[in-house]
Amino acid sequence: MKIRIYILLMLIAGFTIRAQEFSNDSIQKIDEVIITGQYNAQSVQKSVFDVHVITSKTIQQYAGQNLADVLNHHLNLMVTPNTKSGKSEVSLFGLDGQYFKILIDNVPLVSDTGMGNNVDLTQINLENVARVEIVEGSMAVAYGGNTVTGIINIITKKSSAYKWEIKPSFQEETVGGEYSWALKGRHIQSLFVSNSLSENWFVSGVYSRNKFNGFFDDYKGKNHIENDTLRGYSWMPKEQLSTEALLKGSLQKVDMFYKLSYLNEKLTHYSENVSSIANSTTGLLDKFGNDTNYDTNRLVNHFHLTSDLFSKYPLLVELSNQYQKRYFQNFIYDLYTRTANFQEKDLYQSRNTWYAKASINDLFSTECIKTQLGVEALIEDGFTNAASGSLVPLDDERHQMNSIDIFASAEIQMLHDKFMVRPGIRYSIQSAFENQYAASLSAKYSWENDVEIRTVVGSSFRTPDFEELYTLWDTGTHLIKGDENLKSEKSFSMNVFLKKNTQISNQLKLKNKLKFMYLKVNDRIDLSLTSLTPLTFRYININTYKSLSASTENSFQFKDLNMNIGATLMASSSLLKNADGSIIHENLDDYLYNFQLNSSLSYFIKPIKLQTALHYKFNGKQEEFILTEDEQGNELLKRGQIDAYQWMDMSLKKSLFNNNTQLTLGARNLFNITNIKTTAVYGASHGSSEAGKIPVGYGRSYYVKFQHQFKF
Amino acid sequence: MKKLHILLSLFVLLFISSCDEVEPIPEREPITGAIVDVEVGGSNLPNQVYIDLSTNTSMAVTRDAWDLGFYSGEQFRVIINGSVKMAVKASSFSSIDEANLSDVESFLSEVAVGTFDAANIAFVDNVDGDLEQTAIEEIQVDNAQNPVYFVNMGYYVSDEPADLGTFIADGEHRGIYKIQIFREGETYKLLYARHDDNTHHEVIIPKNTDYNFSFYSLMNEVFVNVQPVKNAWDLCYSVFTNEFPGYGTYPYPDFFITNILDNTLVYSIEEDDLSPDFDEFTLEDVDENLFEASQRAIGSTWRVSGGPNNPPTVKENVFYIIKDPNGFYFKVKFTAITNSVGERGYPQFVFELLQ
């Protein structure tokens, strides 16, 4: 405690001195330069793909600590938190995280079940992020399989305008209405330090700590002593520590960086039930909780190099070694002495990956044709055992999956650069499955009046993940089994983007966008009932999925006012079969619909230097096909429904002391949403009102964030 | 500049104000009465344990040590061992050596515990302990009326260690037997063989009236001492074949049955603010009208089921009044289901004679 106060007093002293010294720095302007899917970093307008950019300014408006807070507002994306595991999962175009990849600086991030797929969004820290680039539609040629619906590429900051930059920040946040300094709420601290060593060299480091004390709701915390199932938390507490270091430099026309990031996450699961034992020595009743710590360590090494080979051919190399290890440790928490008796710590999930990608441009190029040739290799080695606590654990064995892909594409400019077309192909040699290929054709046409049309047509594939291949869950009466002979799922998609930028005056700008998407996935893997005794479920390639969507995004900028409004309507359908091939649902034109709307409003009040922002999203009701039974016990396919809900965040950001200090006040989840109702659960059709609940938030929360920048 | 000072002072205040966030620990009363650690034997739940409260003694027997129990009372009744998931069905055969199963797989999927088929309740003994409703029909004087039964022998006790907080009861399957039982004077004559044998064993089983049942193991071909003598036990801990209404039989771990054949009676009390709680309860508070005549009166009502990451626990606000065969009254309260590191198979209760 004393040390904390001391540090704070030091900081106060520091602030007063620094704040006097610096005065006239302007805010760095960010150009919308992107790299996702590009041969070279270039502006959004020039890209053949439609790249949506979330800038660091927008991220700051959300005071979002992790990716879940930010993506929550994006159209066609749905973020679902898991209150017990503490993870946030996300789906894009109705397909889950297996179908798109999350990359950091162009390299897929290791996760529980793969590389870049099913990434836990809460584990992606945004403290040091320059921007997030989102591309919708198949990106398999450029980024490999499992990018059926798109990719999300997180670009970190790699430069500073100053010799030294030191940025401490504090964020105090309520969790719903819950807050106290030590035992409730969310507490975040971070420190960023960078130094421009010379013209060519730059080094930076970030440290941050995010302590979430859980959401109590109706629960009474870890010290609750009565066995009335109210012990513990509605959302389990967790703490994340993340560290990142970057060294960037240039040596004789070779640009490179090396980045090391380390994440440690500790989630504690507190049992609802309270155990007891009468102690015959003391003659007292001892009481305890049966609790578990889940520890995750993730280490990412990333080396990046660009150069011109023979001073002629642009070369890009990415090398990355990433591992993720998860441990669990059971402990008995004595409720009278409040001490923990720890048992052995066990590794239950481990994944080590080696990744390399190299591409070379312009080997066969003319003035209007650019080409890219590349190779991408991946070695994945991992295991999961039954203690993972998930419903479908894997066998205890280590498994390795390797792949080497080669890809080639060309960008052809025609009609005085108005028309651009990019065909591409990728061939993937897989150790665990038959070889795969993907092909795509992207095109862009710009009219003179700032109207652009882009299309991406492509085939892609999704490889089965470790869970689908190696699950083994056997209780004697129940058996869930993976299948090593599964095939990859095949997909075909087509995306069309129509964009118009209108500059009415210097101060008034309009951007309008229309998007259409068609997607079909064949040989979809699903868990199917294959036998009744024992009750056996197996993963098989069986279903077909189809979806269509139409979206619009519109922005309006007038002086310091920014307004966005967007909407999307998606229709999806499935051909569902039983394991024996009999049909459960056959009409691919029998659609389930989902409507989403988002809007944001931001205004900079110049005289008082106050940035205000309001973000809103409406998630319309979602439907799902649920296989259940009618009163006579016959199988019945019904439409389950997940209720609609609204989400709104607002923030006020004030720059103080010549823009060196940022004070942000805000509120999340203004509609005070906690759980939403769903009838998309098995058995909910037995004529009863047996609806389930899906947690989406923990209620209206408030935060204050304080950040100061020392620069010299 | 002032503003910054104010702001940071606020931060400092927040730090200081947080120092005394401590929740008080409640006081606890010492336990009155005797503490009984039931010798179940850990997370495979290997033992059935018979407990006599008046002498505070108990007797443990491995669950798979016996297969059939022959009643020593007036009637000729035979029970099967529900603690290892045995199930039995009469065949149309009248000669044991000729009897055979045409389809073993379909027999095992039909005549078994936990198939979620409501009709399978006919293949096990009555769950309330009613001897009139055993799965094997009463043994008749007329030999022609005693058919051959096929017996799903259930499972050996597992020896695979279970994960913390969970149990693994079933080991290997014990196969299928065929049996035929006749009366021979005041004794039973048991014919038995593996289901695909064409010869059989025979054994005479006398009625020993000191006990309620004579127990026999088909697999080991021996008589087994399972229960204490009549009137000398009150409670039995066991894995139990129970009924899940609408879905037939289902195995329940951590089940306490009461000795209803000797008239041990039980009722349960949920503590509330009005009635006396466990510590205050005396002989005067006993209500004779509340006693239940089912062996399932305690059953699994003393515990709260767990789930992933949440081991089962005892219900803190429930206790039981037990009237033993000799007319003594006891109060019983369960205090544990796991040991101090959270392993299953360590039930514990405290009890006191009411006087």
Count of all domains of chain B: 2
**Major sheet characteristics of chain B:** 5 strands, antiparallel
Q: Into which percentage range does the β-strand content of chain B fall? A: 25-35%
* C-alpha-based Rg of chain B, rounded: 26 Å
Total helices of chain B: the number is 2
The share of residues in helices of chain A is under 10%
Could you please describe the fold and organization of this structure?
The complex is a heterodimer of chains A (712) and B (355). Chain A is mainly beta and 712 residues long. Chain A has a domain at 589-712. Helices cover 6% and strands 58% of the residues of chain A. In chain A, the strands form six sheets. Chain A has a 22-stranded antiparallel beta barrel. The radius of gyration of chain A is 26 Å and the shape is globular. Chain B is mostly beta strands. Chain B has two domains: 34-61 and 230-353, no CATH class; 64-224, no CATH class. Chain B has two helices and 22 strands. Chain B has helices spanning 2-17, 104-110, and strands spanning 34-37, 47-52, 57-62, 68-71, 78-80, 87-90, 149-152, 155-157, 170-173, 176-184, 187-194, 201-205, 213-217, 222-224, 235-243, 249-258, 265-270, 303-304, 313-314, 318-323, 329-338, 344-353. Chain B has a five-stranded antiparallel β-sheet with strand order 1-22-21-20-17, with no helix packed on it. A five-stranded antiparallel β-sheet of chain B has the order 6-7-10-11-12, with no helix packed on it. A four-stranded antiparallel β-sheet of chain B has the order 3-2-15-16, with no helix packed on it. Chain B is globular. The N and C termini of chain B lie far apart (79 Å). The mean pLDDT of chain B is 90. Chains A and B meet through helix 1, strand 15 and strand 16 of A and helix 1, strand 19 and strand 21 of B.
